[in-house]
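Long-time lurker, finally posting.

We've been working with MTH1187 family thiamine-binding protein (Streptomyces stramineus) and I want a structural starting point before designing mutants. I don't trust myself to interpret raw outputs, so I'm hoping someone here can both generate the structure tokens and explain anything notable. Sequence follows.
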Amino acid sequence: MIVAFSVSPVGVGEDVGEYVAEAVRVVRESGLPNRTDAMFTSVEGEWDEVMDVVKRAVAAVEARAGRVSLVLKADIRAGVTDGLTSKVETVERYLAEG
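Top reply, 14 upvotes:
Generated this for you. Predicted structure of MTH1187 family thiamine-binding protein:
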């Protein structure tokens, strides 16, 4: 499964990068395949391990801010591995074909 999620503190002002970095650190230290962009962090693995990482990422932000917003989208598809890369490669292939 691939989960794309965004976790952000609420009530700490506009500059939230330091808080978000705590969540991303949890994801990167998990050892699961992941990718972070301007809006979401995506992580790939089995249900329990991915959801555990999301839970710990939220807890890392919550430890510094009393309120947290979480947006989560999941692609649950048995038997697929390396979806973070292969999905993008498929789109790029179609774009290259014109």
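Before you design anything, note these points.
The two ends are 30 Å apart (CA to CA).
Strands lie at 2-9, 34-36, 41-44, 68-75.
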